[in-house]
Amino acid sequence: MNTQRGSGSLLAVIILLMMSATLLHATRTQLDNALGLLADERQFYLQYSRADTALAWGGEQHWLINAGGWVCKADPLYGRACLSMQGENSMLLRGDAGSGTLAHYRWVVPIGSMGRIGPVLHGWIDYCPLSVSEACQPE
Question: What is the pLDDT of residues 8-23, one digit of tens each?
Answer without folding.
Answer: 888 889 999 999 999 9
